[in-house]
Amino acid sequence: MSKVVADAREALADIFDGARLMSGGFGLSGNAEHCIRELKRCGVKRLTIISNNCGNSGRGLATLLKTRQIERVIGSYVGGNPDLEEQMLSGEVEVELNPQGTFAERIRAAGVGLGGFFTPTGVGTVVAEGKEIRDIDGRNYVLEAPLSGDFAIIRAWRGDPYGNLQFYGTSRNFSPLMAMAAKVTIAEVEELVPLGAIEPGDVSVPGIFVQRIFQGTDYENPIEFRTTRPTPAE
Amino acid sequence: MPRTREEMAAAAASELKPNMAVNLGIGIPTLVANYVPDGMPIWLHSENGILGMGPFPYDEDVDPQIINAGKQTVTVVPGGSFFDSATSFGMIRGGHVDLAILGGMQVGQNGDLANWMIPGKKVNGMGGAMDLATGAKRVIVLMTHNTRKGGPKLLEACNLPLTGQGCVSRVVTDIATLDITERGYVLADLAPGHTLDEVRERTGAPVHAD
Which is higher by pLDDT, B80 or A27? Predict the structure, then answer.
């Protein structure tokens, strides 16, 4: 059975109200743009979004905030996201903030079959409140739980019909972890290539972690802060 | 005259040693990259997944999929690498990053750091700050000595929500550099034109001078 589907609509045909949806990307970079647009189009409601930022500046996943499709956000940084700030303050959206490394590791833990882990990050802060603290070799660690999802939507540069994925630049971020941690991982790729076209050593996400894949086109690739240095004179 | 932002960054750059892996926080710490001594190899770490971050790109080389943790477009130096977030924070939490230079709102004389939220004000989230404060081998805080209203930011104990406990080794401010020791704050350096008495007056805890 091929994992290749036609488009985001087919890939997300069984999304349901109240689903826990993981989304790769860092801010607006490396977002699964087609899947996000399809979520808006299909109108699925009461989503829990597991994403570092939940979009930014009214774009990316923040478009689903504008349409009131999100009930809960689990992430690490919500600055620069006025829609989320507004709905957080009004109580429409519940936000759970995690230290970024803890967020990544909780997802990884779920994906690799661990029941949690002890981390020194957050000990003595609000993050550790109500959680088990354990002294291990003279240092205090806090117990953090795994974090899984019903779906993950991730974006990669190249992918093949088995779901092997290769990434470009800094677009990897949380995607390989989310691919492992979701029941259904949907990959959209800029180039769908035949089996064998990706060097085995260049595969960042082995296809075993991907259930559906399609090729996307016309990526917007928005830039949040275009920073440059002056071009030297010839 | 107090140190400017650039002079504070230049003062913090004296911490750099060849081949260190260094993470620079958002704000004044980012400017430290401009004061790396000529020819000194430094591996800048960006927690979204770069080791070996380079300068901002030339206009024609801007790439929307090569960004830093502040979501600015950047470049990568020869020998640089990209990786996922678990690996990136493994570098931090695992003690592989030699130095983190972070911004601060408050520091306690026991090395506690508060830099991520003010209750009742807009909440941005901690991002990678708690992992960096806890995991980097050495943590330097770069911040103005006093609040805009003139109150002390170097205190006996922080009263804002903590980012990390006992994690700060040194604080570089616009008027002085102070080390955090078992005795509390110890003056390491004065900015030109400032005195120990002034630093003591503007600090919310005893300042020792050896």
Answer: B80
The residues facing A225 across adjacent strands are B72
Architecture of the domain made up of A8-113+148-215: 3-Layer(aba) Sandwich (3.40)
Tell me if chain A has a CB within 8 Å of the CB of B57.
Answer: yes
Complete domains list, chain B, with CATH: 5-205 (3.40.1080.10)
Do the beta carbons of residue B43 and residue B21 sit within 8 Å?
Answer: yes
pLDDT at A83: 93
Summarize the confidence of residues B18-30 as an average pLDDT.
Answer: 93
Residue of B60, B71, B93, B162 to mutate, interface with A, max A Cβ within 10 Å: B71
Give the pLDDT of residue A234.
63
Rounded to two decimals, what is the model's pTM? 0.96
Instruction: Report the 10 Å Cβ neighbour count for A115.
Output: 9
Three-point CA angle A147, A153, A154, nearest 5°: 100
What residues of chain B, 168 to 207, have a C-beta less than 8 Å from chain A?
none
**How does A186-214 read in b/e, with b if 16+ C-beta sit within 10 Å?**
bbbbbebeeeeebeeeebbbebebbbbbb
Q: What amino acid is encoded at A16 in this protein?
A: F
Active site residue B156: no
> Which residue of A30, A121, A226 is in closest CB contact with B131?
A121
| Residue pointed to by tokens 């949690």 | A116
